[in-house]
What does this fold into?
Amino acid sequence: MKYFITGGAGFIGCNSADHYLKRGHDVVVYDNLSRPGSQRNLEWLHGQHGDDLRFAKGDVRDFDHLSREIDGSDVVLHLASQVAVTTSIEDPREDFEVNALGTFNVLEAVRNHCPQAVVLYASTNKVYGALENVKINELASRHEFAEFVDGIPENFPLDFHSPYGCSKGAGDQYVIDYARIYGLKTVSLRQSCIYGERQFGVEDQGWIAHLIIAAYLNRPLNIYGDGKQVRDVLHIADLLRAYDSAIEHADEVSGGAINIGGGPSNTLSIWAEFQVILESLLGHPVEASFDSWRAGDQLVYVSDIQRAKLLLDWQPEVPFETGIKSLYDWIAANSTLF
It folds into this structure.
């Protein structure tokens, strides 16, 4: 089958491309290479797969070029995105054009050129907003939900915060509606804190990789808020299994949204608890400075993944201790890349 991956040179994209190339599929990586590390990821893919990989340099905002390249695809992984809340606040127009218009362009290109294709959209937990009305308890090392013990479910009211939340949320809803109105095989996967090898994390996106890289290279560490913010985290290997299952069950899950995250069994506070893991890996203390809270930051976000278990027969298999150690080892072995 032909797999078309927008943002295919990014962290999730290059791992996806590698995964499907190893399975013998034709893969087209579509990327404008604007993301730090994307050129290195592309070089790595070429090194792994040579001429079996097809690369098309392009931007999802360019509808005509996108349409030509996507033609004939069997599976479309729409991963291209402006990924940071902070950047969206600084430049909301570009954020809108990449995330909202870009997703619309992908859907229209599929509708007109490969309407039989399965389309997976990398949505985000940010569609649920800041969760300001959810009761939260403060413990010694973390905040936690007082009531949502299984996490936030897909039927929780949507509440887009920040330009990023609005643009990704618009894409999320367009993806769902294109199945309903046009009969496309689309599904919105609301992903939460994906981490793993080949992630070039920066301060405002990819926090696990960013903190490991900074600590390993003795760079300053800055934490926004009190460091007790909790996230559910998911290793890239588990995400790829979710993609496989969503493609396999496309007829059943089309037109829906599914949370894909670590769930209640894979949660960490971003500093109060993560610091302990980091110091254990490094073998010495690690200090950080603290700054004010960032707009729209969630005190707690944990995915309720019961729907994924039911519809996709999927759940995380990589404990965060194992996944983080694997990422640390990759960063240590490739420290000259950062």
About this structure: The longest helix spans residues 92-113. The radius of gyration is 19 Å. The CA atoms of residues 142 and 228 lie 4 Å apart. The domain at 2-337 is CATH 3.40.50.720 (Rossmann fold).
